[in-house]
Amino acid sequence: DAKTTQPPSMDCAEGRAANLPCNHSTISGNEYVYWYRQIHSQGPQYIIHGLKNNETNEMASLIITEDRKSSTLILPHATLRDTAVYYCIVRALTGANSKLTFGKGITLSVRP
Amino acid sequence: DTAVSQTPKYLVTQMGNDKSIKCEQNLGHDTMYWYKQDSKKFLKIMFSYNNKELIINETVPNRFSPKSPDKAHLNLHINSLELGDSAVYFCASSNWGQSNQPQHFGDGTRLSIL
Questions:
Q1: Contact residues on chain B for A85, CB-CB shorter than 8 A
Q2: Which residue of A has its CA nearest to B97?
């Protein structure tokens, strides 16, 4: 079972920031927070991951709360091509528990 | 320069048949995975191979038999196909030793059982 909870859906206007929340209150100290997305009819695409510090790359920013029980994925300037299902996943560092366990994700709809 | 490629992209076949799906990665990764995404869109891991050895084997019927001839390939053979096998099957790869590294996915094989 997925160890994260996300709202089922949200939308935002094109060009605005999209802030996608995720709760992971039972996260362990050795587990990373990963974000993937799945655009319709494609395979999941890695976005970003972090342990406890905030992270930023060319796609997004990841803000993790100090207690690590929740995080927010930020797409700074959403475009229509960002419409997808976004998955927040916690993943252990080693062993069989390093497998990715996908939940239902959050469907982001970017409107013109 | 596709990183993880699966063939075929679409597979339509009759119940009871045996079929195979192939996966190849050119990323130099040492670990490959098979996932199943059902009609409700849940994505679940089925198998994982590291350096041609099975390391993850979820509760999957033994009609499903993965085979890894080398690190760059992981094929999935399915015997006696059933209606419930209809799904999208995704292959992925990563480096096992670097556990915080992301998995890269193929674009899926859409299997439809008539």
A1: 41
A2: A94
Q: Provide the mean pLDDT of chain B.
A: 91
CA-nearest residue of chain B to A97? B56
Stretch B14-43: mean pLDDT, rounded?
Answer: 93
Cβ atoms within 10 A of the Cβ of B95, count?
16
Of B42, B48, B103, Cβ closest to residue A46: B103
- So what's the pLDDT on residue A41? 83
- Cα dihedral B75/B109/B91/B78 (nearest 10): -40
Q: How does pLDDT run across A1-16, given as a tens digit for each residue?
A: 668 999 999 999 999 9
On the question of pLDDT at B99 being above 70, the answer is no
Return the bridge partners of B30, or none. none
Pick the closest to residue A104 from A3, A13, A34 (CA basis): A3
Residue A92 tokens read as 């252990």
Binary contact (B99, A92; C-beta < 8 A): yes
SS3 B11: strand
Name the residue with tokens 């050895």: B53
